[in-house]
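agent: user wants the structure for Glutathione peroxidase from Actinoplanes auranticolor. delegating to structure tool.
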Amino acid sequence: MTIFAVDIHTLSGGPADMDRYRDHVVLVVNVASRCGLTPQYAGLQALADTYADRGLVVLGVPCNQFAGQEPGTAAEIEDFCQVNYGVTFPLTEKVEVNGPGRHPLYRELVGDGPDIQWNFEKFVVGPDGAVAARFGPQTDPQDGELIAAIEKLLLR
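agent: tool returned. relaying tokens verbatim.
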């Protein structure tokens, strides 16, 4: 199975239809609105703006497991992201990324690897659905290594 077969809902509640991202490069990021790393939303939006026409999809996945830094409702999260960072990339429902309640999306992403460290951990998923790279929370979305990992897959 790949992330494209996972059932997850959009932030507004309907099915996210992950299969529509098949043959795209997907940057999956667990996000939070009240975190010291929250300004990374701006860099994520810049990536989405820069590479969307070449097949990149940035997918934000809200999570409240780290110090309760994403406590809002779906409407509050959406409003926060649009008003403060102009986010246009897709956001999913709020999920758990670690522990026994880990969402199937994160079971696919993490596999046998270590748990998610904190908000804004990043997974670069290739067009085949395989995780190509993983970056820690402190990695800025405009980091050269992250961009190189994305561009490498976009060139295929």
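agent: one observation worth passing along. The radius of gyration is 14 Å.
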